Structure formats: C-alpha cells, structure tokens
C-alpha cells in the first residue's frame, strides 16, 4: 500500500481514538493522535500494536502491524495535531461541556476548510457547535465499536452544517474503508443507538417481568435474530419473512406489535401511510418478482454461516 497524503488528527486516545487511529493508519494515512495525558498516550501506542497484531493474525491487514503503527504520531499539543490535517476526529468522553470547549479550540486552530467531526454517541453537533464561527464544518461521525471491525459510521449534520462539508466527510470515510450512512436530521442517539436502545429496553423489561433470564435473552439474539442481522436489517428481515413482502407482514403482524408497544406505554402504530412508504422503499430495492430469489439468497447466507460455525467447532 502506498502511503496517503492525507492526515487524520484524532483528539483523544481512549478506545475509540485508538480504534480510529487503526482505521486511518491501515489505509495509509498519517495519524496524529492527541491526548493531554502523556501516560495514556504511551498505553495507546501499545494498544494500537496489540490490536493490529490481532488483525494481522486473522489476515485483516495488508501490511505488518509495525508499518501501520509507525504511521501514528503521538501528540501532546493540540495545535500541532490539527495543523495541515485532512480531517479532525474528536474522540473525547461523552461530556457536553468538554466537547463545547474542545470544538471551540478546534474551530480556532483548524484551517477553515477542514471537517470537524465528533465521535459522539448521542450528543448532536447542535448541542456543542452551534455558537462557533465555523459551525458550518461541524458534524457528528458516530462509528460502530470498534470501527476497524464494524465499518458503519453515521454522518449526522446539524441544520447549520454545510452540504459540501457533509459530502466531503462521506467521501473521506468511504476512502478509508468505512460504510458512511447519512442521517436526514439530527436526533439524540442517532440510528445505531436508538435501534440498540429499543432492543435493550425490551430486554431489561423481560428480565424485570420474570419472562426470561439474561442468558436466554442473549441466546435468542445470538442464535436467532442476530444470525439474520449479521447480513440484513430489520426491514429486509420481515420483508423476506412473509410472502407478499413487508406490506403483507405489517397487515398480519402490525396489530400484535401495536399491542406489545402499548403494553410498554408506547403508542407508535404503523399507519397505512407509513407502511406504504416503507413498502415503496423496499420494492425499489427488491421488486416483488425478485422476492423468491432474495429469500433463496438469505437461506444461502444462513447456510454458509452455519457451515462455518460447524467447521470452527471442529478445529
């Protein structure tokens, strides 16, 4: 791999900062990893080497861990971290006051054309960047954890974020092998954590109500739902589960899901207009005449995973 001319300035050397350092460095970028804690930076260096060694063991790197780690420069000075950077990735703890202060400094220090992205898990860019002179280049880029194994990254612009800045972020994250998803509006927790939170809330309720144990709920996901979710999402899952597609599924199962929601104090019925919108989007992806072939694709994917699991157990 040829080294890239791009430079990533990563603010914070905790677990997400380290993970992003690996993502950018393995793509040939120079990485400047900043932390005010010198001891934490030393630990981060060892973590990068260790995690890269694990990736190398599973043939997930094109270069040696040493070559990739050498692209990461440890920095204790914020100004030198952001100078000449292609992208700034803030990975500080999820504390609003801290992010407000950091983005104020970053907006002062970084060149005006540089995207300032936060790895925030729930806080929106509006909450920490709204008063900045350079707020138009600020957004959230929320990764899966760890991003060197989970490629999805949510790009969440604020109402004041410039569209060109969003496009540039989408391009840069795709360039380093991530799968950027652009949200249409700000919302606390974004998509990733709202979906995760919905399942987690119900899981807690099922334990509280004595319906199931923690271990058995995890089995339902890891041996059932999760096997399908490894390669398709909730809409495609139900679309392929019912002949006639998602519209047919909503007609048959919608009332039951409405009752389950009401039991939890949630009144969000699947209205006819909403179901029609979801169905239209699904049919634009997979027309009904291709439904049988897509079901066969799903079954092949599940069989491949079942075969791989059997082989793994035999090793």
Main beta sheet: strand number and arrangement? 8 strands, mixed
CATH class of the largest domain: Alpha Beta
Order of helices and strands: EHEHHEHEHEHEEHEHHHHHH
Rg calc: 22 Å
How would you sum up this structure, described in words?
The two termini are 33 Å apart. Helix 5 (96-109) links the parallel strand 4 (87-90) and strand 5. Helix 1 crosses helix 2. Strands 3-2-1-4-5-6-7-8 form an eight-stranded mixed β-sheet, sandwiched between helices. The chain has 13 helices and eight strands. It is globular and about 60 Å long. It is an alpha/beta fold and 315 residues long. It has helices at 15-26, 38-57, 65-70, 78-82, 96-109, 125-129, 163-175, 192-208, 214-229, 234-241, 246-263, 272-285, 291-314, and strands at residues 7-11, 30-34, 72-75, 87-90, 115-118, 138-143, 152-157, 179-182. The protein folds into two domains: 7-182, NAD(P)-binding Rossmann-like Domain (Rossmann fold), CATH 3.40.50; 193-314, Orthogonal Bundle (N-(1-d-carboxylethyl)-l-norvaline Dehydrogenase, domain 2), CATH 1.10.1040.
Descriptors:
Rossmann fold; 55% helix; 2 domains; 8-stranded mixed sheet; single chain; alpha/beta; 13 helices; N-(1-d-carboxylethyl)-l-norvaline Dehydrogenase, domain 2; 315 residues
Overview in brief:
The chain has helices at residues 15-26, 38-57, 65-70, 78-82, 96-109, 125-129, 163-175, 192-208, 214-229, 234-241, 246-263, 272-285, 291-314, and strands spanning 7-11, 30-34, 72-75, 87-90, 115-118, 138-143, 152-157, 179-182. The chain is of the alpha/beta class and 315 residues long. The protein folds into 2 domains: 7-182, Rossmann fold (3-Layer(aba) Sandwich); 193-314, N-(1-d-carboxylethyl)-l-norvaline Dehydrogenase, domain 2.
């Amino acid at each position: 791999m040829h080294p890239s001319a791009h430079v990533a300035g990563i603010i914070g050397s905790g677990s997400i900062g380290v993970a992003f350092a690996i993502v950018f460095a393995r793509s040939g970028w120079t990485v400047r990893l900043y932390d005010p804690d010198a001891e934490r930076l030393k630990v981060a260096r060892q973590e990068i080497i260790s995690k890269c060694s694990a990736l190398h063991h599973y043939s997930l790197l094109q270069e040696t861990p040493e070559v990739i780690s050498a692209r990461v420069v440890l920095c204790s000075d914020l100004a030198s971290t952001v100078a000449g950077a292609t992208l700034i990735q803030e990975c500080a703890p999820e504390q609003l006051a801290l992010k407000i202060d950091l983005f104020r400094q970053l907006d002062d220090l970084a060149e005006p054309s540089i995207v300032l992205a936060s790895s925030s898990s729930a806080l929106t860019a509006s909450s920490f960047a709204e008063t900045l002179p350079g707020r138009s280049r600020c957004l959230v880029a929320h990764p899966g954890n760890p991003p060197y194994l989970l490629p999805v990254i949510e790009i969440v612009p604020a109402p004041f974020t410039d569209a060109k800045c969003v496009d540039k972020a989408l391009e840069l994250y795709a360039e380093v092998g991530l799968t950027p998803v652009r949200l249409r509006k700000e919302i606390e927790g974004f998509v990733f954590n709202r979906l995760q939170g919905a399942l987690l809330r119900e899981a807690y309720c099922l334990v509280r109500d004595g319906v199931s144990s923690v271990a058995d709920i995890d089995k339902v996901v890891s041996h059932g739902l999760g096997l399908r979710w490894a390669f398709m999402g909730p809409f495609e899952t139900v679309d392929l589960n019912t002949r006639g597609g998602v519209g047919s599924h909503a007609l048959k199962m919608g009332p039951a899901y409405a009752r389950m929601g009401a039991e939890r104090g949630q009144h969000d019925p699947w209205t006819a207009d909403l179901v029609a919108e979801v169905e239209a989007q699904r049919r634009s992806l997979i027309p009904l005449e291709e439904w049988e072939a897509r079901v066969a694709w799903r079954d092949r994917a599940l069989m491949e995973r079942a075969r791989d699991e059997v082989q793994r157990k035999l090793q």
